[in-house]
């Protein structure tokens, strides 16, 4: 049985983050027995119908516009196939390893932007904040003699505080996020120039901790394979634990075959990636950190009360306010997260070139970070998206850049192609939302 909005009262939060049956934002405690079975949305029963059930559910989702990550995954496969056919070096271990490090700095900024986009808002200051944070790091570490770790923590703290300022003006004063962060973009760019001083560039030690963030590789074969093994084992364990909780609550569970199939697909992808990385230098430290950040951010978004509140505010702000959520604090906090992640991205950008300059965080960094989140599947309209959007979107953008660089295509063409991909992602999102409304799912 479904509620009048078409949401499943027992399957977790609705798009607004609120459980239709309990009215709370916590995990619902479903009653056991026949009553629970009578209330179960029939769509959940596909888990007990095996492959036929999932095929039917897939067709239903396509008809109703619930595309998920399918468009970006298909697009990524096509991009890789096209560039590999044009140049056999595209999928070489060296190029893929370099690509995996190139996505990290902007990808980390994009993870923070995902939180803001979930509210249907925008942060135009992220690029400038990343540059200002890199400048603070370099000056404190090189000119003031701070330890690299202390300088990094200070730069993140400064950017988080500036994000708090954005959030206060937006949530408390009522200034639109576009205007607040546009002003921030200009102000923090000025701050970056002021901190760097007349020279405009501060070089970082090549053998120091900061530079090692993007230059360190774990060349032991066991490192990449071990990470793949941990990921696969963790996914399998979490899947079976989730099944046990559903079974206890009287909710239909995934079949054992379904879990094994999902685990096998993940294993092929994870161990395949590990094999490729081991053919060059091994597992990059930067990629490892990025993946950990994405997993933690996704856990916060989908498995914590705070994450549910973010989705609730992004889905229906008035309903969230009536449910007792502190809307202002949620709004402020996402800009703080965006600021912190911008700083982390700025640190990795400085690490990549072993310096902080006036160009750090400038140019197309902001646009690429926002584009990555949107291309990866985060909705510009709020209420839908995950941290994995940043990872998938950056893979698409950097794959286009890498493939065109191998072909000797100019930056102007790269920007036009990336812009076309971004427009296509927004069009797909808009059409998807329209289809879901027509199907009663939005």
UniProtKB/TrEMBL annotation:
Residue stretches of biased makeup (Low complexity): 26-38
Record-annotated membrane-spanning stretches: 67-87, 99-119, 126-143, 149-171, 178-197, 217-238, 259-277, 283-300, 328-351, 363-381, 388-406, 412-431
CDD domains from the UniProt entry: TM_PBP1_transp_AraH_like
Annotated Gene Ontology cellular component terms: plasma membrane
Region (Disordered): 1-38
Keyword Glycoprotein: no
Gene Ontology MF annotations: transmembrane transporter activity
Membrane topology: Multi-pass membrane protein
Protein's recorded name: Xylose transport system permease protein XylH
